[in-house]
Amino acid sequence: MRSIWTGAISFGLVVIPVKLYAATEQRDITFRQVHRADGARIQFRRVCTLDGEEVPYSDIAKGYELPTGDMVVLTDDDLAELPLVTAHRIEVLHFAASAQVEPILAAKSYYLEPEQTGTRAYVLFRDALEESGKVAVAKVALRQREALAALRVREGVITLETLLWPDEIRKPDFAFLDEDIEVRSQELKMASSLIETMTEDFEPDQYHDAYREALEAVVQAKVEGNDVVRPAGVEAPEPKAQPADLTEILRASVAALKNDRASAKPAKTAANAKLATAKPAARAKTRAKAAPAKAKEEKEAPPKTTPRRKASA
Questions:
Q1: Domain region containing 117
Q2: Helix, strand or coil for residue 115?
Q3: Residue 306 has pLDDT above 90, yes or no
Q4: Looking at the domain assignment, is residue 70 inside a domain?
């Protein structure tokens, strides 16, 4: 994980240097908008509505539109001059009961890792916070936007939950809330009994995104069936080197070695058979050539004489 923010937890007179990491990620299949006829991507351009010209990103500024239609243009210098004391600080305002921070307020969760110099203070604050059973209500500025936040402890790590501001929570305004709807005590009792029967511990690992898995299967089936479109002018990317899997490499090596041995064995057997057939013929041919020469040598050689024994005196 890469840290996205560096700062400190300000807890009274205690300052704990920390790094901020995104604690969650959205796993989904990303689609592109394409032309149905040829699969080419749809391009979006930043075009000025006044002159119809495309505007480079460097010339784009933030604008606040007034009810009259007039526009207040803000520059980077205007934003830089705004006071933002929590730009590099998580300022703890107070502590509150965990139940008082309602789930609807939660926006995004982050992990806080201590810098080496602040590890002891971090652990002290973490243990005290966990023992209290409370959450720390704080303020923090991320990406030039200040937000409320709640500090909790999860699996030995302090987490920061950014919270929505109260005026960002919509008020429920539904007609049935003003109606007098009667619920009989027997119905309420049976509903409570059903809830009790279905109550069990919540274990997140038991659940999975069945829709995403089914969607991935559809995409994979189209890929395997070669039901893909190559838009004109798009070249095939060079294959990327995949991370080596030692088990797969060894398995492939063994299979290749077996194939080499299997293909080499018939050729060797045939060569041996050919050699075995050739050897008797070569020997016979050699004997045939050698026979006249041997006879000639015997004919031309002088006769053998037996030396006489010297008579004994």
A1: 1-23+90-171
A2: coil
A3: no
A4: no
